[in-house]
Specification:
By secondary structure, this protein is α+β, with helices and mostly antiparallel strands. The protein is built from three helices and seven strands.
């Protein structure tokens, strides 16, 4: 068993009454768009912009940093310790699709989730510590 350390950057992107979530076809839960901050990234925001362009196909505008969250989970026998930089932003152009959005990445599923979807457990957003931040950004906290 090893301890693995990862730095990520994720974004709360809302459109109307919904938040954009991402995931993999074979996973039962969804996360916010974004991903790993790589060694060549100067800031977490740089990594976030790159990841969102790759994953969602849009550029971010009006970006605001919200917090840094600590998260951990098991990946096989290893414990992953994540430091997540969380942002709220607007997309530079509308993101279509309802409820599913086509991602430029074949292995990525993008889905618009309503607050009802999230609070009723129809969409499992991970980590759970994100939910209060998403609710706040949607003006429901």
């Amino acid at each position: 068993m090893a301890d693995l350390f990862e730095t990520t950057a994720r974004v709360i992107l809302t459109q109307g009454p919904c938040v954009l979530c991402a995931g993999a076809w074979n996973e039962p839960f969804l996360i916010l768009p974004g991903g790993h901050v790589e060694d060549g990234d100067v800031h977490a925001l740089e990594g976030l912009r790159r990841e969102v362009e790759e994953e969602v196909g849009v550029r971010l505008a009006v970006v605001r940093k919200l917090t840094i969250l600590a998260n951990q989970w098991l990946r096989g026998d290893d414990v992953v310790h994540e430091k997540m930089h969380l942002y709220a932003a607007m997309a530079s152009s509308p993101i279509g699709g309802s409820p599913f959005v086509r991602s430029p990445e074949a292995h990525t599923v993008l889905r618009w989730a309503s607050m009802y979807d999230l609070t009723a457990g129809l969409v499992q957003l991970q980590p759970l510590a994100l939910l209060p931040w998403v609710l706040r950004c949607m003006g429901r906290a």
